[in-house]
Amino acid sequence: MTTVLCIGECMIELAPVGDGLFRRGFAGDTFNTAWYLRRELGDGAQVGYFTGVGTDTASDEMLDFMSCSGVDVSRVRRIEDRTVGLYMITLTNGERSFSYWRGQSAAKRLAEDAEVLRAAFEGVDLLLFSGITLAILSEEDRARLLAELSAARQRGQKVAFDPNMRPRLWPGADTMRAAIMEAAAVADIILPSFDEESLTFGDADPEATVARYRERGAGTVIVKNGAGTVAAWDADEGLVRYTPAPVEDVRDTTAAGDSFNAGFLAARLKGAAMGEAIAAGAQRAAYVIRHSGALAE
Ligand code: ADP
Fold first, then answer.
1. For 216-232, what is the mean pLDDT?
2. Do 17 and 23 contact (CB within 8 A), yes or no?
3. Looking at residue 187, which CATH number applies to its domain?
């Protein structure tokens, strides 16, 4: 059976429902992708999540949620005296803003033990991590995680990376840029979003983003581009472009990129060619942005 493991941080989400009340949910970039991958791949694959959580009830409830949605949590690290991170969404005149409490989250310690990483990655066909996964780690832990991912890749396991750049999570732009390019060098499949890449690296167009990541040795690069044309490259198929069908009734673009990744990766795991896989990613994302919240049933 195909096994996929997504690595990163899932948080408790508090979303306003009116009258000062909030609905609790669970979300986080790589977890969102795991959740959608599970839907894309069904019972023909095992989709797992790797993170750190505490030993408290909030952590138990997060793991229950993951298990109930079919995501395997057997590799998750339990860390005493820590708990999971939390964010609250506030709406002002229809605009969403986010407040985070994640400075002490257990997930920040997911990569402090090389043996634990090695055991968790064993036998996994596809490993996925992101720039957010890296941003929450100490420099030492970041290096440890990249070393273990690189070793997995050398053993023939596939590694996918979404740069997902959040400048506020990094000590500075130079550190972020250096870490992202270092991470790209351990990945087979790179899934950037053009708006972030042009802001951070000054890429003139998605093709420039493709070229920059190709140089790091990836076999596949897909540059997501909102409503615009996706530019992608694959060692077997060369340059591929795809323009998603227009979506008129966009409601909430949260998790557009995360769900695209799931649609794309699932199609590739099933043997689809690039064009077909990009279309599958775009289709999944188009559905998600018509619904509110990160996880659209
Ligand atoms: P991210 O959420 O990472 O910023 P993007 O905004 O680039 O990612 O969106 C990811 C994918 O979602 C796009 O490549 C596209 O397929 C789809 N998408 C996002 N916004 C739109 C839109 N307005 N119309 C159609 N498709 C969209």
1. 97
2. yes
3. 3.40.1190.20
